[in-house]
Task: structure prediction
Amino acid sequence: MAKWGMVIDLNKCTGCGECVTACKVELNVPVVGPEESAKGRTLLCMDILSTYEGEFPDVKMRTLPRPCFHCEHPPCIKVCPVRATYINDEGIVAQIYPQCIGCRYCQVACPYTVKYFNWTKPEWPEERGAALNPDVSVRPEGVVEKCTFCVHRLQKAKEQVAVEGRELREGDYVPACVESCPTKAMYFGDLDNPKHMVSQLKKSHRAFRLMEDLGTEPKVYYLSEVE
Amino acid sequence: MQIGNTFMVKPNRVAASVFFLLAIIIAGCADGQNSDAVQPIVYSHYTHVEEGGAECLDCHQYAETQSAASIPNIKVCIDCHDEAISESEDEATLLMYISENKKIPWRQVYSVPDYVFFSHRRHVKLGQMECAVCHGDVGSLAVPVAEQYERITMEWCMDCHETSNVSNDCYACHR
Result:
């Protein structure tokens, strides 16, 4: 069984935010508006964290794209009282929206703060119209949302290769953020398959994961910047 | 004062219980999952399938390629019914819809909630399932489909997934 994972090369990431936009569109993530946003209720299944180093005028901005890390030992699944969040056979940490009761335990348990509670009824700017992704449900108000590694794309890819009568190849299934990255800073594939780029990159001396000492074993690796 | 109060409450209670009973009866009637779906044309699958020799996929064209199998409408019907081929009154109704270029307002009998992602392609094409497993022997129905042959419930889906040895991961249907 595949273990899907991601590698993000921080040398190549320019912090443009294309992955954030692609994610919002792909997963039907609502836009909450300025008032809710000021309360810290922005929904971002993919976010870019930025830090500034140095004094003016020699300021350097570092950016860190941050999806759900789909940990091998996710702390969030242990606290869910209704098994709305669990890790599936392929290592994807699922969030089943119709099952979620909105208790927000998992949101608190996640050390990476990648889970978001939707406080309001989903709304989008009028310009977007009804152009929602039909492959992803529109979540009801009051559930916890998260990055799914675009699992609907995996299902579609599996369906397609079954029709074509072949095995799933690298690149058949990539999440929207990886696909959209203009500098190709993100790689996606099976971490257990030695032929896949990600399984080679994760062995790089530049590879690291966030808060590794927690033992959560995230499946998203970063390649550190090289000056 | 207390006695008065109890008397005051009683008629309310009676009314409430009558209302409650009515509500149960009405809910019970509506429980048959679109059992009240009366179709705009008295369509006979029997005439088309058993007598006419049509296959399911002839009209429900997208069952092998898309998620939704599609309920055929005038653009599909016109292939055979470009002019009257029988003396049936229902065909006359159909021809009226066609001549007025109006869509037939079929009522959908089989549906799943919006958080369930069902794909006909996956079941019909990849799973090689017969239509009758879920829809029953529709071909023998001389009256329009009014209710589900098998009530589509999660338990029913999961039972079949288990016996057919396919994924029962929540993500298989919910996302």
